[in-house]
Amino acid sequence: MAESSKKLKITFCSGAQSVTGANYLLEDLETGRKFLIDCGLVQGEKIAEDTNWQPLPYDPKEIEILFITHVHIDHIGRIPRLINEGFKGKIYSTLPSKDLAYPMLEDTMNILKRDTIHGLDKIYTEENIKKAMNLWQGFLFRETIDLGDGLTATFRNSGHILGSAMIEFQVNGPSTKLPRQSSGQIGAGKKIVFTGDLGNSPSPILPDTEEITDADYLIMESVYGDKNHESKSERKKKLEEVIEDNTKRKGTLMIPTFSLERTQELLFEINDLIENNRVPMVPFFLDSPLAIKLTDIYRKYSDYFNDIARQKIKAGDDIFVFPGLKETMETEQSKMILKMANPKIIIAGSGMSSGGRIIHHEKNYLPDPNNTILLTGYQSVGTLGRLIEEGVKQVRIEGTEVPIRARIVKIEGYSGHKDSDNLLKFVQNTSETIKKVFIVMGEPKSALFLVQKLRDYLAIDAVNPKDGESVEIDV
């Protein structure tokens, strides 16, 4: 007897044609049940663009479960808004993501509550964050969550940051390996996977991205859909060279970095370079209260690290600490860095220079040609980091025109995202079962390049949906 089909609907609420603002609605059209996958802030010139406060294409009160792929703010930053507008459902993520979420949301609250124009001081409150955490449940990787009505969900390791996951929705039992439909029409499928952000494996700390081999539909990121990174050995060699060069110049090396994952990776690799006498010992400042808090949470979840990192810890190595490193929690400690003699190295947020303590250092150190700024991640359009990356000669920081004479260095290999060739390989693993791939979370040029690459190399039906677009799937 043939299984009855179920009709699901996916709406790409935001994050379909940009790198930030992940927010997707999954509806069971038979039962009327509604699930969200991520609820992130759209970020650009500001940490939160005005589009974040436009009416949502769904009623938060009707959402049963919000699934979180990982806790970068462009994936969780609008949760306080959901709470404020009546969301009382459940929030599901992996266990590490639940622990990391509170300091991430708290940090965003401290920035956004200053905005009274949009009433963010009423939305980004301690009370709303606590309400969210009370609704939050953590799960293990590969733990099957029975959602009822023939639907299950499973978190698969995406290898992007600690706790990051792909969310696999399965309908009516195991996925059946059926040939792709060449017509491009959406037919009978069994498994839908929202990839979230896919890690740039192998990572210094985390296990590799889990392979998906039996998906019927993918909703997949494309941050680096049109670019490839350096090799891991090349990126470490470049880091070594930048540190050595800064020492010779007797300058200040600024490293704008994301507090979550990028900071921990850099600390791990610098630890290794210093322990093996590959770079000179100079003063290093971890000038980010958020990064310091998150690094402590990383230590708690060392069981989630890869074999190499776990073996180092077992041998007694604190992989995030090395001689010369000073953590500066207090504002006064941060200000004192300016008085410290060169050479010195400052690791501070934010990764795109869109806020945080790094902008104060950039204001002080960018005008000096002996100094260096090292960019280790994606710089979104409209951010200060993107302007610096593009080589402008002058930027405006906190109302002051600042000339850029410092050396600018970019290391692509430290990106936390898979590059173009590895995104292709990821899809190739499930090419025998895949029916359609929806390419999201990338600038249009990057997303469309990946769409064409999947069509050309794998003959797969791939599309780049628009924000607000919906698609129905028979499963």
Could you explain how this protein is built, in words?
By secondary structure, this protein is α/β, with parallel strands linked by helices. The protein has two domains: 7-227 and 416-474, 4-Layer Sandwich (Metallo-beta-lactamase, Chain A); 232-414, 3-Layer(aba) Sandwich (Rossmann fold), CATH 3.40.50.10890. It contains 14 helices and 22 strands. The chain has helices at residues 73-76, 79-84, 95-112, 120-123, 126-135, 232-249, 262-275, 289-300, 307-314, 331-336, 358-365, 384-389, 420-428, 444-458; strands at residues 7-14, 23-28, 34-37, 65-67, 90-94, 136-139, 144-148, 151-157, 165-171, 191-194, 217-221, 252-256, 284-286, 325-327, 344-348, 372-375, 394-397, 400-403, 407-410, 436-440, 462-463, 470-474. The chain has a seven-stranded mixed sheet with strand order 6-5-4-3-2-1-22. Strands 7-8-9-10-11-20-21 form a seven-stranded mixed sheet, with helices on one face. The protein has a six-stranded parallel sheet with strand order 14-13-15-12-16-19, sandwiched between helices. A hairpin with a 5-residue loop joins β2 and β3. 50% of the residues are buried. Residues 174-189 have low confidence and may be disordered.
